[in-house]
Amino acid sequence: MEKQFIKDLKVGDRVKSLFGVTKKALVNYRSSSSKAPGQYMKLHLVDSSGSVEEGFGTGRVEASDLFNEGDGGAGRGQCGGLQWSSD
After folding, report:
1. Which of 2, 40, 62, 76 minimizes the number of CB atoms within 10 Å of its CB?
2. Main-chain phi, psi angles of 28, to 5 degrees
3. Global pTM?
4. Given CA atoms 11, 13, 15, 20 in this order, what sign does their dihedral have?
5. CA-to-CA distance for 71 and 7, rounded, in angstroms?
6. Pairwise CA distance, residues 64 & 5, whole Å
């Protein structure tokens, strides 16, 4: 697997790489969402190039119990609305 860096990711990119997890939260969908009532997982991911906050939708919430903040893990999926942070 070729390393993908956070600084190079764009919305719509397919992602399959390793990242650190510094924050993890389950967040309720807004009441106006078609997915409400329900939750999604919000993660703050880091690597040597920076950090990003990304949400992982329904069907991924169960995976929240498999890891903790401070863990590293493989990320696989498609980039949604990225919220960037420069570390």
Report:
1. 2
2. -75, 140
3. 0.69
4. negative
5. 20
6. 23
